[in-house]
Amino acid sequence: MTLFEKIYYIVQQIPYGKVTTYGHIACLLDNPRLSRVVGYALHACKDTSIPCHRVVNRLGGLSPSFDFDGSTTQYSRLAQEGITFNREGNVNLKKHMWNGACKS
Prior knowledge:
- By secondary structure, this protein is mainly α.
- It has one domain (3-95): Orthogonal Bundle (Arc Repressor Mutant, subunit A).
- The chain contains 5 helices and 2 strands; from the N terminus they run H-E-H-H-E-H-H.
- The mean pLDDT is 90.
């Protein structure tokens, strides 16, 4: 399994109505320095069945380069799942963070 495939596998484990961070995925890969690589993998993902919109930055911030409409599309998809945001537009991580482990 390639590194990108491992990242996609983990992202597929994030439940509806939950999010996780690039850094948490990197930790699940046993290398906390891979958070940027996680971002690259998600940006390169063309498989619409992988819920890339459920991955946010460490502050709950959305990706300005998500899909074609940037964070607007990501925001809409998360809001449809019941995700709540603070005044700054960041996801409420205390309420919606998924800390699950990758199931091999």
